[in-house]
Design goal:
- By secondary structure, the protein is mainly alpha-helical.
- The protein has 14 helices and no strands.
- Helix 5 crosses helix 12, helix 10 packs across helix 12 and helix 13 packs antiparallel against helix 14.
- The chain is globular, with a radius of gyration of 29 Å.
- The relative contact order is 0.11.
């Protein structure tokens, strides 16, 4: 038997389905396979990519944040404290934080409902509705603010009937909250939606088999799985609401008497008066509040994940 015939016979035997491949045959086969190079990467190496990453972070995040600290610390402690504790600034902080908090809580409730409908049900126009969730991201915030202020004014489509019932929306805290709900709802829906898609139906079936009702199943099973993602969406919506400007500048009315001025409007006023130190001092307080909020949410997420995964 020639060598070529022997090789052909061996390969045909080795390719037979169900035949057990011997260890020495496996080693010979693997030794003939071309092995990838150790440094054969699709993108450049660690040094170049890390340099690009640090450069982008420095130009877009670190340097602008450092400039806020530099301008704010040019003031003396007494001047800094007097600026951030003045009456109009404190009212603006209270208005921004309270309305952003209420809007984020409302978004948590309706965000779960919207995400549940989009994930668990099939109906005509589902893709259109799913795309409309992204509308606040694509729509300029100034356009949203003008539209909402007109729609909820005393001559608007919704504001007219409500005003005849004695309920004013535009140029009040209610209008502010509605605008913040509009711009914050996508954060909650998009945070919850992937978790719901991966949630196994067997958890719900097991809960029903064990005698749990719908309410118990939702709060003890489903909501427990959604809590980290829900906290993420809440934190993003809350942080966005505190610093929102375009969508609230028109519907709020910016009245110092009615306390409808938001922090971003007060900062803009300081910039118009060329008072950069006061503007950055107020911006620094906003930055600290947002950072602490996100840090708290991340800590809660980590603890919740460990508890859920029994780590």
């Amino acid at each position: 038997m020639s060598t070529d015939t022997a090789k052909l016979l061996y390969s045909s035997i080795a390719a037979e389905p169900g035949r057990r491949v011997l260890p020495e045959e496996k080693e010979k086969t693997e030794s003939k396979r071309p092995r990838p190079k150790k440094n054969g990467r699709v993108i450049p190496g660690f040094g170049l990519t890390m340099g690009i990453t640090i450069a982008m972070l420095s130009l877009l995040i670190l340097i602008p944040l450092a400039s806020v600290f530099v301008y704010a610390f040019r003031m003396s402690p007494a001047e800094f404290w007097g600026t951030v504790t003045s009456a109009n600034v404190l009212y603006a902080f209270r208005t921004s934080i309270v309305t952003a908090l209420i809007a984020a809580l409302i978004n948590c409730v309706f965000g779960i409902i919207l995400a549940w409908v989009l994930v668990r049900y099939e109906f005509p126009g589902k893709r259109l509705l799913d795309g409309l969730i992204e509308l606040p991201f694509a729509l300029p915030t100034a356009v949203a603010g003008i539209t909402l202020s007109k729609m909820y004014s005393t001559t608007g489509v919704l504001g007219g009937p409500l005003s005849r019932l004695g309920l004013e929306i535009s140029y009040t805290h209610i209008g502010l909250t509605i605008a913040l709900v509009f711009i914050g709802i996508p954060f909650v829906v998009r945070a919850i939606q992937p978790v719901l898609e991966k949630l196994d139906y067997q958890y719900e079936e097991a809960a029903f088999i064990l005698g749990a009702g719908r309410r118990t199943t939702f709060f003890r099973i489903i909501l427990a799985e959604l809590r980290p993602a829900l906290l993420t969406g809440f934190g993003l919506a809350f942080a966005r609401g505190i610093g929102e400007y375009g969508s609230v500048i028109y519907i709020s009315g910016n009245s110092a008497k009615e306390h409808t001025q938001v922090v971003s409007y007060v900062i803009m006023q300081k910039l118009n008066y060329m008072d950069y130190s006061s503007a950055t001092a107020i911006a620094l307080i906003m930055l600290i509040i947002s950072f602490l909020m996100l840090l708290f949410i991340n800590i809660v997420q980590v603890r919740q994940s460990r508890r859920t995964n029994n780590v």
